[in-house]
Specification:
CATH architecture: 2-Layer Sandwich
Strand content: 25-35%
Distance between the termini: 20 Å
Cofactor: Zn(2+)
Organism: Rugosibacter aromaticivorans
Radius of gyration: 17 Å
Low-confidence stretches: none
Bound molecules: ligand LPXRUNBV, zinc ion
Number of helices: 4
Helix content: 25-40%
Mean pLDDT: 95
Shape: elongated
CATH class: Alpha Beta
CATH topology: Tetrahydropterin Synthase, Chain A
Structural class: alpha/beta
Number of strands: 6
Largest sheet: 6 strands, mixed
GO molecular function: 6-carboxytetrahydropterin synthase activity; metal ion binding
Family: Belongs to the PTPS family. QueD subfamily.
Number of domains: 1
Catalytic activity: 7,8-dihydroneopterin 3'-triphosphate + H2O = 6-carboxy-5,6,7,8-tetrahydropterin + triphosphate + acetaldehyde + 2 H(+)
CATH superfamily: 6-pyruvoyl tetrahydropterin synthase/QueD
């Protein structure tokens, strides 16, 4: 069985080498959808009976490890020296330095890598992260899929 939980957050970014608008500093209302697979729990009386995993727990882990870190942050590529240096001059500014240019594809892949470890260490093999879908806008999204991210 497969379940999906969606969360939203706001963040700024830019794609410094982009040929068009995206090289400017701008922001998005991002959405992240986390898809997990597992067996439906069949233990009468348990709070999560009939569920793969309680959606509220899916949310809590995603919020703690990705969404709260990225929400209202500026996501800046470590090679984007002009912006990274400028942001470092702002006292207490919420800046997240990324190892790759912060496209929807790379952010989806980064979130997958973080969350895969988290769900695995919390729930072992019973729950598997299958996909992280990251919406940059309502019309543009990227999917990080297990088969392309993990060798298993
Ligand atoms: N494959 C990708 N292409 C683009 C990405 C990306 O992450 N992956 N990112 C951008 C920009 O960051 C941009 O903010 C999105 O731009 P745009 O295509 O303009 O998207 P909109 O939904 O705002 O488009 P409208 O046509 O104005 O609705 C660019 N490309
Ligand atoms: Zn953008």
């Amino acid at each position: 069985m497969q379940i999906t939980r969606r969360l939203e957050f706001d963040a700024g970014h830019r794609i410094p080498d982009h040929k068009s608008q995206c090289r400017h500093l701008h922001g998005h209302r991002y959405a992240i959808e986390i898809t997990l697979t597992g067996q439906v729990i069949d233990v009468p009386g348990r709070s999560d009976n009939g569920m793969v995993m309680d959606f509220s727990e899916v949310k809590t882990l995603a919020k703690t490890h990705v969404v709260d870190a990225w929400d209202h942050a500026f996501l800046v590529w470590r090679e984007d020296h002009a912006v990274a240096t400028f942001l470092a001059t702002l006292p207490n500014h919420k800046t997240v330095i990324t190892d790759t240019v912060p496209t929807a594809e790379n952010l989806a892949r980064t979130a997958f890598a973080i969350l895969d470890q988290i769900y695995h260490s919390t729930f072992g093999n019973q729950i598997r992260l299958e996909r992280v879908r990251l919406f940059e806008t309502p019309n543009c999204w990227a999917d990080a899929l297990r088969e392309e991210n993990i060798e298993c």
